[in-house]
Amino acid sequence: METYLLDTSALTPLVDQGHQKHHETSARIVALGSAPIYVSVIALAEMQYGFALYEKFVGSILPDADKMMMKAQAYPRLDISNHTASAYAELKSTLAKHYLPTPKKEFRKQHVGDWADQFTGKALAIDDNDIWVCAQAREMNFVVIAGDKMNRIRTADPLLKYLQIT
Question: Domains in the chain, ordered, with CATH?
């Protein structure tokens, strides 16, 4: 039986009953049956950031934020460890090898999202937090559950186990 790890793009519609993909996401999670499902501490941090951002701009707490966070925290949490750091370094270097012409700093910008594919010249648009979540999954041999495709990561690392939920 596989073990799963929730990325923010799957977690958000799962815990937000008002989300347009809530029912679809919930049904996909229920279909996994009794398989263990963890939530990445990165996904929890991204949710907290979204709630804080809303509050700072709107001046009030997002309705149901506490309820959504409680639902998210009901899943066992997978933290970052020194082993995750090694998996992250391996995955990020795999992305660099796959997409960059050389490891030189002129091509290797600080943020992976700013890196350009050596063949197309287009920005990779990979979020560093997605790399962290995928590194956690690789470290533990879990399947990442995500609402986005993560195509660039999956192309560079075909061993990443992945389930697109929405």
Answer: 4-80+129-164 (3.40.50.1010)
